[in-house]
Structures are given as C-alpha cells and as structure tokens.
C-alpha cells in the first residue's frame, strides 16, 4: 500500500480537489484534518512557504499547491487518466484547470465576503466567469474533459457543490439554470459520478461552518462600515 497522507480541511475546496483525484485513481490515503486557526507543526514544516493546506505527503515527501498536487497524482498514478494523451487536448485541459485556479478566489470570496458596491461588482465578475465556463469551456461537452471527468472538472468541482451553499447563505443566485443550462447540467453530471457522490462533504456541516464565517463577516463590516 502507498504511504500517502493528506493534510487538509473538509471545509476547503482546494482539499476536496485532491480528495477527488486520489479517489478517482483508487488510492487509499490517511486524511489529517488541519485547524486553520491553529496550524500544526507538521503543516508548517511541510509547507513553510505558504503555510496552507492541502499538503500531500507521499513516502514522507510533501507536495504543496493543489494544482501541482493534481499533476503529481496524474504523473505518479496513470490509471484512470485525468489528462488526455494528445498534447493539444492536454494543453486545453490545463488551460481550464489554470482558469479554475485563477478564478476560484474571485468567484468564491467576491460575492461571499464583500458588501455593497464591491459585492455588486463581484457578482458581475462571477457571472462573467460562469459565462466563460459555459460558452468556451464546456461547449457541448458533458465534462470539461470531454465524455469523462478530467483535471479541469476536478479543479472546478467545488462549483458543483459549494457555490449553491454560498448562494443560499448570501441570498444571491449566480448559477441559474436558465442562464447557464450547460454548466448547471455539468454540476449534476459531476455529482452523479459514483466516486464523487460518495465523497462529498456533509452539506449541513458545510452550511454551519460557512454561515458562521459569513455572520462573523457581517458583524465585522457593520463595525467598519
Ligand atoms: N493556491 C493554494 C490555495 C490553498 C488555500 O488557500 N488554502 C486555504 C484553505 S482553503 C488555507 O490553507 N488557508 C490558510 C491561510 O491562508 O493561512 C492551493 O491551490 O493549494
């Protein structure tokens, strides 16, 4: 058996990317839940530069940054490939995977963590991100990876799950089926994959965690605003 440990948090979309990739590869690993308010010595040792999760530790060696971890997993365990063989298709898959990386914070934190005009601006930016994914990323494909789930799907997978929880808390809907029918369908296709379905965070737990963060932020804004 592989000596694999994943330091992460069940509340972190970056962590879930890695969990999904490991599970899709059929790998067993030990999961170590990190407390971001009290980072462990091991986390600081493994990721001294960014001090962030996730960290995958393979045979005692740490790999950090979720997108790099995904590439490492793909290269190390080629079964159930997440990337196509063709160099051009691979480049396209990596483009959307990078897009997922570049835009995650804009989409996630923008409308969740901002208020007033800044939030309105963030909503517009968020819609533009979804539009790009719908029109240029997915097109007529079932998954970003084509007929089967791939690297970009795993990178973007949080949208299929988190976004809806965030929307419910904030009371703003971004991913409307009428506006983004293909992307909406993709969220269902993603969650229908049995390995993904069996490995989703508990919605109530997520809701409680994110709601407490959101309420804390509203209190903060009411003091500074
Ligand atoms: N670019 C990093 C981002 C990871 C990230 O932001 N992790 C958050 C949790 S979701 C974290 O560790 N935050 C702790 C901190 O910023 O101190 C990746 O893709 O792995």
TrEMBL record:
List the protein's name.
Answer: Glutathione S-transferase
What is stated as this protein's family in its record? Answer: Belongs to the GST superfamily. Tau family.
- Entry function: Is involved in the conjugation of reduced glutathione to a wide number of exogenous and endogenous hydrophobic electrophiles.
State where it is primarily located: cytoplasm
Q: Name one GO biological process term.
A: glutathione metabolic process
Entry's Gene Ontology molecular function annotations: glutathione transferase activity
- EC number(s) stated in the UniProt entry for this protein: 2.5.1.18
**Which residues are in the GST N-terminal domain?**
2-81
Q: Give the reactions, separated by semicolons, that this protein catalyses.
A: RX + glutathione = an S-substituted glutathione + a halide anion + H(+)
Cellular component per GO? cytosol
PROSITE patterns linked: GST_CTER (PS50405), GST_NTER (PS50404)
Entry's PANTHER family?
GLUTATHIONE S-TRANSFERASE U8, GLUTATHIONE S-TRANSFERASE, GST, SUPERFAMILY, GST DOMAIN CONTAINING
- Which compartments is it annotated to reside in? Cytoplasm, Cytosol
The upper taxonomy is:
Eukaryota, Viridiplantae, Streptophyta, Embryophyta, Tracheophyta
């Amino acid at each position: 058996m592989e000596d694999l440990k994943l330091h992460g948090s069940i509340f972190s979309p970056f962590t879930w990317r890695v969990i999904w990739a490991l599970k899709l590869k059929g790998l067993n690993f030990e999961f170590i839940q990190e407390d971001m308010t009290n980072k462990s010595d091991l986390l600081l040792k493994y990721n001294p530069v960014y001090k962030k999760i996730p960290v995958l530790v393979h045979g005692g060696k740490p790999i950090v940054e979720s997108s790099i971890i995904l590439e490492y997993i793909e290269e190390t365990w080629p079964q159930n490939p997440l990337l196509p063989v063709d160099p051009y298709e691979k480049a396209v898959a990596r483009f959307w995977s990078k897009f997922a990386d570049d835009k995650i914070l804009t989409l996630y934190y923008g409308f969740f963590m901002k208020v007033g005009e800044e939030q309105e601006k963030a909503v517009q930016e968020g819609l533009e991100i979804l539009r790009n994914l719908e029109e240029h990323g997915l097109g007529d494909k079932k998954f970003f990876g084509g007929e089967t789930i791939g690297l970009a799907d795993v990178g973007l997978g949080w949208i299929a799950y988190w976004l809806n929880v965030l929307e419910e808390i904030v009371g703003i809907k971004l991913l409307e089926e009428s506006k983004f029918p293909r992307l909406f369908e993709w969220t269902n296709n993603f969650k229908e994959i049995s390995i993904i379905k069996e490995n989703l965070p508990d919605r109530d737990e997520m809701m409680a965690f994110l709601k407490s963060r959101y309420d804390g932020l509203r209190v903060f804004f009411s003091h500074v605003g």
